Amino acid sequence: MNRPRLTRPAVPALAAAWLLSRALMLWLLAHSSLPLLGGGAVSREVWGLYGRWYEVLSHGTFPAHDPLWQYPPGAGPVLLSPALLPGLTYLQAFAVLTLLADAAITLALTRAGTRPGRTLRGAALWTGGLPLLLHIPFARYDVQATAFAVIALLTLQRSTRACGALAALGALVKVWPALVLVGTRKGRPSRSAWAWGGGVGAAALVLLTASFDHPFAFLPQQGGRGVQIESLGGTVLGLASHAGWPGRVRYQYGAMEFTGPYVSTVAHVSLALTALAFAALLLWRFRSAAGRWTEATPYDAALTAVLLFTVTSRVISPQYMIWLLGLAAVCLTSRQTTQRPVAALIVLATAVSAVVFPALYRQVETSTWAGCALMVLRNGLLVAAATLAFRRLWRSTGPSVPRPSTLEKPLPASEPDLGSRRLPERAASPS
Known about the structure:
This protein has helices at 7-30, 41-57, 75-80, 90-113, 121-129, 142-154, 160-174, 188-211, 218-223, 232-240, 263-287, 297-311, 320-332, 340-359, 361-365, 369-396, 418-422, and strands at residues 227-228, 248-252, 255-259. By secondary structure, it is mostly helical. A 3-stranded antiparallel beta sheet has the order 1-3-2. Helix 13 (320-332) packs antiparallel against helix 14 (340-359) and helix 14 (340-359) runs antiparallel to helix 16 (369-396). It is globular.
């Protein structure tokens, strides 16, 4: 008996939930000067920092001498895009365009979820999960980067070329969307996706290099970053301060980072863990060449890869949760995904992140016991999610074991072989 389909009534309910939640998020952004909402610190990054970069970019150059500029060249067009809405302030235009990117993600997840054999759980997770970050998503450009990654994955089955091209454009905006290609099936699909990604990425990079001066100015600033207080290494240093470690917190490279003895060691350990995560992904891909593969495997692999690189990073900002929510939502569009418990852990970590910033960020900055406890909880959830994601991905794509043919099925011990019935017993040949 076929189960009744619930997609038709579910879609209007999702649309209503999206409209209500996004209206609330915009209200929070408009009132971000309230103390519990950060006292204006969240929106200041847009009208202050992004707005300043907009003025520099509008003159055809990247902010090469600004130590806060740490983004690849594709970020330039995104930060210039508010010029498309000249009747609004920079903050208003940026929020509207981010809202449109959010709507594009929701629409893509909904369309994917209404196809045969799919589910709307992904659209529901994105619709209900993003507001957990309050107004932060509309004051950062991570939603735009996530849109490239989400739509790239959802187009993979229909067009490996489009998937590769979108992933490459996303990588030029914020690097990590390139990881969505790690799970493409080996052989022709993988070659096509990576070839188109490389070609489109190279062409876009040439265009950006010709349009702006100093396109690679972000590299020295990115390489000079230290250990941010919300990272896994930062959690260790925060706890160490209660044991007498004399380090301090300083605002540098656009984030609150630890300074003092052993900070460089912690940073090097983080880089080593990132290299180890990359090696683990390569080992998985090599091992899974002859293994089981489903439509959800590329989704699961993308989420696992971004989780591994997030937890081993020297920086974990609240907006990084936007990436993980988007990729978890893609996984949940497929009934064959192995990442449902991982998605639940990500939602929990997102809720904790909203408590950390902006409400109790001062507790984290000063490494109080409450701040350290919040970081242990949030980062512990992320470590658990990354570990579980890789474990489930590894097991789900193990080498296939061929099922024995029915003709070769051994007979029960109580039933003799038919051949022994037909042939009389005879002495064995001496030869």
